[in-house]
Sequence to fold (448 residues):
Amino acid sequence: MDKTPPLRVVLAKVGLDGHDRGIKIVARALRDAGMQVIYAGLWLTPEAVVRTVADEDADWLGLSLLSGAHMTLVPRVLQLLREAGLEHVGVMVGGIIPENDIPKLAEMGVARVFGPGTSLPEIVSFLREHSGASHA
Amino acid sequence: MLETLLERFRRRDRRALARLVSLAARGEQVEEILAGIGDSARPARVVAFTGSGGVGKSTLVGKLIEQIRAQGQSVAVLACDPQSPLSGGALLGDRFRMPARPDDDGVFIRSLAAVGGQGALAEHLDVLIRLLEAFGFDVILIETVGAGQGDTVVRELVDVLVLLLQPEMGDDLQWEKAGLLEVADMIAIHKADLPGAERVEAQVRSTLALGGASTGETPVPPVPILRVSSRSSEGINELWQTIAACPLRRGRQKSERDLLRLALQTLAVRFATARAGESSELQHLIRAWQQGDISSAHASSALLNLLANSRT
Fold:
C-alpha cells in the first residue's frame, strides 16, 4: 500500500489536427513505463480536454499539436485548467513548436515542450522527476 | 484531508468525486469513504457491457449516453481496460469513443485499469458503484475489458449484464466455451448493419434453446436478443428500452453484505499488517507461505486462528 500510485496522464490532441502517430507512440512508451495513460483522442476542444482531466483525476496533461495553432489553443487550455481549479496538473506539449514560441509557452505555465527528436526515456524521466509524492 | 473531500462530495462537488474514485480504485481508505458518502436517495440502474475486444462496447456505450441524456437521466460510465502485467501501466482508450458535451454535468466518464488476473474488471468496482450511486447518478454503465470467462463475476455487481456479439466472430461453440451466454441478461448483436447479423442471431437462439432442452426443468425466461448498430443507430432505442424494463436485481441486502465482507477484509489485512512486526509466529507463518511450504488455504486458516487468539 505504500508504493506510490501510478501516474495518470491524459494525452490529447486539440483543434483541427489529425496527425496522431506521435501521440500514440508517447502513449505506448508511458504505458510501458508503468503509467496509466488516458488517450482522449483527436479534434478535441480545450473544454473537452479539461473536462477529461478533471473527471479522470489526472496528474499530467500532454497536448500534441502539429497544426501551428499552439499559441491559441495551449493558453486556452491553461486558462480553463486554472478556472477549474486544476492548476496542480502538469502540462506538457509535444509536436511542431517553433523555437521562439517555447519560452512563451513556458511562461504561460507549460512545464516542458518536447519537439521532434525527443527520446522516449527523456519524457518518461521528466514526468517521474517532476511528479511530487503528494499526488495521492 | 479525507473529511474535507467527503464534505465536498456530499455537496456534489465533481472534483471531490473524481478524487474519491481514485482513492477507492486503489483500495485506499475504502471503509472511511463508504461510511462518509452517505446513503443514496434512490438506487441507480447499473448495467454492464461485456464481449470480446473490438466488438464495439465503447462505441455502443457512447450511443447509449446520448439516449439516456435525451430522456433526462444522468449517467456515469466506468470503462475498464487491461493493465500490463509487465509494466503495471495501462493504455486507457475507451472514452474517446464516447463523445460527451464537456459542459454537461449529467455525464461522468472514468477510465480504470483492470489488474491482470482479476477478471475483466477493475478492482473495488463495488465501492466505485456505491460512490457514483451516492453522488446521485441515475444510470451507471460499466464497460468490461471483455476477457471472457472472468466476466461472469460482474453479474453479481450489476442489475443488467449485456453481452455483445458481432457478425463473423466464430462459431457458436466459442460462446459456449466462454460461459457468457448463460450469465447474460440480454444479448445485443452489434454491428448489425454488416452482413451476417441474422445468422449470428439464429445461432444464438439455437444455442440458448439447447440449454433449456438439456435440463428440461424450470423454464428459464427467454433472454432478449436484439440487433443493434451504432453506425446506423438501428436498435439503440429498443436496446435501452429493454434494459430499462429489466428489474433492478441488486438488492439492498446484497450491497450491505458486500460492505460487511469488504470491511472484514480490510480489517483482517490491517490487523495482520500491524501485528506482523511484533508477532514472530505470524512472521514465521508468512515466510512459510512465501516459500511454498504451506498452501494458501492452510496459511489463511492458521492466520485466522492467530488473529482470533491474539485480539484483545
User: Anything to note?
Assistant: The first helix of chain B runs from residue 2 to 10. The longest strand of chain B covers residues 75-82.
